[in-house]
TrEMBL record:
Domain of life according to the entry: Eukaryota
Listed GO MF terms: DNA binding; DNA-binding transcription factor activity, RNA polymerase II-specific; zinc ion binding
SUPFAM superfamilies: Zn2/Cys6 DNA-binding domain
Source organism of this protein record: Penicillium citrinum
Pfam families: Fungal_trans (PF04082), Zn_clus (PF00172)
InterPro entries the UniProt entry points to: AtrR-like, XnlR_reg_dom, Zn2-C6_fun-type_DNA-bd_sf, Zn2Cys6_DnaBD
SMART domains in alphabetical order: GAL4
BP GO terms, sorted: DNA-templated transcription
PANTHER family in the cross-refs: TRANSCRIPTION FACTOR PDR1, ZN(2)-C6 FUNGAL-TYPE DOMAIN-CONTAINING PROTEIN
Ranges where the Zn(2)-C6 fungal-type domain occurs: 6-36
Entry keyword set: DNA-binding, Metal-binding, Nucleus, Transcription, Transcription regulation
Protein name stated in the entry: Zn(2)-C6 fungal-type domain-containing protein
């Protein structure tokens, strides 16, 4: 491969350059660094590691230096951890604050070096706290993400698998979900489960001595289910493992514990049931409506638990509420479009409940979010976008009237979320393009007389014109 022009050294010395990449003959003979001024979009050779140096202790040292370079030492490291526990941890508590600081302190006191898995976890905690600028992640954030993915692969090949590795993988999946790296998120969610099976988390939890360690491992188990379900929801696929129908304890959800994270896991398990019903059962089974009715009963029973709290949760601060609403909308939309002469009243009931749910989502968006932008959960965007799309595209739900007053609160909430997560920003842009398309076709107002349904999956793939 050759360059289009001479290297910088040959040009300065006015010597003839053979323009060989990556190093010309003159620079190679002089043992000098060879630099070409290439166009920004020109392909460049990436630095390759010395394969003989790829050993666990070398990788651990490299990761420790990466933590120092990306985050810093001492006070900077404490500030980064404090940001994580003040924001991400409030809605996704998979890393025990007490245990994390204890492990960090113990390893540095006892061995004067940090294990590679703990350094990796520290980098992932910093990564998931990164925010977009004007709806776009900076190149430095993408570079950090790609580097961490590479480190995960290297540690995996070297046989490293620990609680910190599982936690790091899950946080990477949260980053991918939140910033619309959807294909990678689905792959990561499935790989997380395999890694957890290999580690045998159940056995690890039984061996843990302290209640804090047991709770941390239990929350990691919850998180594996949660990210797998939500990644499947975003991609329109059944869950990675198709774990089967919810067990009997899931169907009896009226007395579900009100602790936020177990409740989020319960909502995700119900979402699993919906996704399996949508994507992994035969059309004949779906058309019977028996399982669909059972799903709706469980979801309705579960969602009544949110009415028992003193203050109704805000749509931008309660992930369990958002995921259960997403599951309900998915199930109701399927039921409301089933073509069967014998299920007219079931379709009518589905439409009425769907109308009520969409109104409820929009109503909750009329109050400002109660938390700082950095603490917005990642699991909210689908519910808002899908509810707004249903209201916009289905005349049975909108009643054939101007939908702008109903969908504006949901658009506003997507705008808030877009300040934190790229996926929400893209949802907001997709939704605006759909609205423009409807205006261009003059579907609003008197011309909007037919039932129009644009699938959520088409919108997420950036094709607002498919109907």
């Amino acid at each position: 491969m050759s360059a289009d022009q001479a290297c910088v050294r040959c040009r300065k010395q006015k010597r003839k350059c053979d323009r060989i990449l990556p190093c010309c003959a003159l620079c190679k003979r002089l043992n000098k660094h060879c630099v070409y001024q290439l166009p920004e979009d020109a392909p460049r050779l990436l630095a390759m590691p010395d394969w003989a140096d790829l050993k666990l202790n070398n990788l651990g040292y490299t990761l420790e230096l990466q933590v120092s370079a990306v985050i810093g030492d001492g006070l900077k490291l404490q500030e980064a951890a404090a940001l994580y526990f003040r924001t991400i941890h409030t809605w996704f508590p998979i890393v025990s604050e007490k245990n994390y600081h204890a492990r960090l302190a113990n390893t540095r006191v006892q061995t004067n070096t940090t294990p590679p898995e703990l350094s990796l976890l520290t980098l992932c905690m910093a990564l998931v706290c990164k925010e977009p600028i004007a709806g776009v992640l900076p190149d430095s954030t993408w570079s950090l993400y790609v580097s961490i993915k590479g480190f995960v692969g290297l540690l995996e090949v070297m046989g490293a698998n620990s609680l910190e590795m599982i936690q790091s993988r899950i946080l990477l999946t949260i980053f991918e979900i939140g910033h619309a790296v959807n294909d990678a998120a689905c792959i990561s969610a499935a790989a997380n489960l395999r890694a957890a099976f290999g580690l045998n988390l159940d056995s690890l939890g039984q061996k843990s001595a302290s209640p804090e360690e047991q709770e941390e491992i239990q929350n990691v188990r919850y998180a594996l289910l949660i990210v797998d379900s939500y990644a499947s929801l975003e991609s329109g696929q059944p869950p990675s493992t198709q774990r089967g129908r919810p067990s009997s304890d899931t169907k009896d959800v009226a007395d579900v514990e009100l602790n936020a994270f177990p409740k989020l896991a319960r909502a995700s398990k119900l979402l699993d049931w919906v996704l399996i019903h949508l994507y992994a059962t035969s059309p004949q089974d779906r058309s019977s409506g028996v399982e669909g009715v059972a799903i709706l009963k469980c979801l309705t029973s579960f969602m009544t638990t949110f009415q028992n709290v003193e203050l109704h949760p805000h749509p931008l601060s309660d992930s369990a509420l958002a995921i259960s609403r997403s599951a309900m909308i998915e199930a109701l939309e399927l039921g409301s479009h089933m073509i069967n002469p014998d299920n007219y009243y079931c379709v009518l009931t589905s439409v009425n409940i769907l109308k009520s749910l969409v109104h409820e989502v929009g109503l909750g968006g009329k109050t400002p979010p109660p938390v700082e932008t950095a603490a917005f959960p990642v699991f909210i965007a689908h519910c808002l976008f899908k509810a707004a799309m249903v209201c916009l595209c289905d005349t049975r739900v909108s009643g054939g009237i101007d939908t702008e007053p109903f969908i504006q609160p949901m658009k506003t909430l997507l705008g808030y979320l877009g300040l934190r997560w790229v996926a929400a920003s893209r949802c907001s842009n997709d939704f605006d393009s759909v609205i423009r398309t409807y205006h261009d076709r003059k579907i609003f107002g008197e011309d909007r007389t037919s039932t129009n349904t644009i699938s959520f999956e088409n919108q997420k793939s950036g094709d607002p014109n498919q109907t």
